[in-house]
Amino acid sequence: MRDAATPKSESKRDWELSEDAFRQLLQWLDEGTDSGGAKYLEMRRRLVSFFDRKNCLAPDELVDETLNRVARRLKEESAITDTTPAQYSYIVARFVFLEYLRRTETRAVRLDSVSQLDGPSVEVAAGSDAQVSREEKERLLDCLERCLDRLEPENRDLIMHYYHGEQRTKIENRRALAERSGLTINALSIRACRVRGRLEACVSECAGTIQ
Amino acid sequence: MHPQIPGDQLITQYLLGSLSSEETERLDELSLTDDEFATRLRVVEDELVDAYVGGELTGQTLQQFNSFYLASPRRRGKVRFAQVFRTVAEQHARTGAESAQSGVTARPIAQGAGSHRARRLELLPSSGRAWQWGLAAAASLLLVATAWLASENWRLRDQVNQARTEQTAVEQRERELLARQRSFTSEKEVEVARLRENLDRVKRESTAPPSQTLWQFPAIVAVVLTPQTRGVSQIADVNVPADTDFVAIELQLESGDYPGYRATLKAVSDNQVIWRSGRLKSRTSGDIKVVGISLRPALLKSSRYMVEVVGISAGGSNESVGSYVFRVIK
């Protein structure tokens, strides 16, 4: 466990996220409330999506790097007050992404190995992907059933009815569902989206697929 | 939704990678800093994926979905989930309709039954008479079997279509990446040729007879840049007259802790690297640490550029210390 006496000149790469530093990070993200870690998880989710939209190879690693740097700065400075947590996290994430780009560009520019392309996305052999796809779908169906079992009945009912029907029918169903639930259409869509997100995460964990 | 949140159409374009770099950067920031936008982004992405799975995307939107959205393993996972979920949701809908028709109470999929598939039902009879129960059970079983066969047929067709679509996306991505690599190669060749030409010119000039050498002071444009902070800030305009020999840029550092620095010049429009420095050392100007770079005007057009500076630690690792944006006017 490191403390405030750790000299700043210590290499940044050697710095590890201690329990104390992590707790400080959670409190800083909560901005005076106690979300029980929900704000941290949401920030992680947003950062993963950010790096994934940039087609980065390993979004989770880049998110770890981002949050580690934020936590390190918090530990060294005791507070970051000139900007909001989300804003600061974005700034750091952007730097991490730019560094990632430079690393991938440096590897890509090799005049003597044109075939060794190491760009910011991963390609799967089309032939093997089709083979895996069928087995994976079988596994996903099983996992989805188990994950639906674990949902609260009202959420399971909501998610099934929310995605019932096609186009016009679906819109009418959702309107009716919103009225029955006492929600606006927008609030209903947000709730359905969150339940779906939980299902996706559950299925991903169950099936062991990348998400 | 407050007025500054982009509409769903813009969000869709953002998800398909078809916005300008400035607009993309703006939405990148919102996706992390604005709760309402972050939520809306998730909703729109789910709807986009569902539209793709439902075969509702066409034309350029479909093309962009295949070439850009499906390039990420994580996003392909979302599509696979959506396909499976659609199957289950449709089965659930069919089950509800069939129960209403056959007059039995059905508990549809996945309510603690421990079934292997989402197609199994538990039926609760509403009549006490044995033969009626037998008929109702047989009719329901027949309906279930029919529904299962139809679902299987749809699922297999969808698998084939999906495999074809993914293969097309992979091939397209391969072509794009290869073209990009070829572009890198030719750019480097051009740069090497240019450097050789400059070297030859310098050699010629250094061996020219003294009477042919014209001594004159080089025309230098000097500019001082501060690091870019978030949001809109003033971008420095740099006027570069035609007879300029060098553009000397002094980059103010927020921290001067590193033994060395390196700078990279990029075009803002396409993030293309224009020039890289060698190892630089910081110096003190007043009470501010700075590093200086010197650029040939031929590198610069009337456009916006960004200089990215990294600090080189004692261990040799690079860490970003700042970026500096300026606009060249020629």
Name the features.
heterodimer, A: 211 residues, B: 330 residues, alpha+beta, 48% helix
General description of the model:
- The complex is a heterodimer of chains A (211) and B (330).
- Residues 1-10 and 110-132 of chain A have low confidence and may be disordered.
- Chain A is built from eight helices and no strands.
- By secondary structure, chain A is an all-alpha fold.
- In chain B, 48% of the residues lie in helices and 20% in strands.
- Chain B is built from six helices and eleven strands.
- Chain B has helices at residues 8-15, 21-33, 35-53, 59-67, 73-102, 130-207, and strands spanning 105-107, 122-124, 220-225, 236-239, 246-252, 260-267, 273-276, 283-285, 288-295, 304-312, 318-329.
- Chain B has a five-stranded mixed beta sheet, with no helix packed on it. A four-stranded mixed beta sheet of chain B has the order 3-5-9-8, with no helix packed on it.
- In chain B, helix 1 packs across helix 3 (35-53) and helix 2 (21-33) crosses helix 3.
- Classes of the chains: A mainly alpha (211), B alpha+beta (330).
- At the A-B interface, helix 2, helix 4, helix 5 and helix 8 of A face helix 2, helix 3, helix 5, helix 6 and strand 11 of B.
Q: Secondary structure elements and their pairing?
A:
The complex is a heterodimer of chains A (211) and B (330).
Chain A: H1 19-30, H2 38-53, H3 59-77, H4 85-108, H5 126-150, H6 153-162, H7 167-181, H8 185-207
Helix pairs in contact in A: 1-3, 2-3, 3-4, 5-8, 6-8
Chain B: H1 8-15, H2 21-33, H3 35-53, H4 59-67, H5 73-102, E1 105-107, E2 122-124, H6 130-207, E3 220-225, E4 236-239, E5 246-252, E6 260-267, E7 273-276, E8 283-285, E9 288-295, E10 304-312, E11 318-329
Parallel strand pairs in B: 3-5, 4-11
Antiparallel strand pairs in B: 1-2, 5-9, 6-7, 6-10, 8-9, 10-11
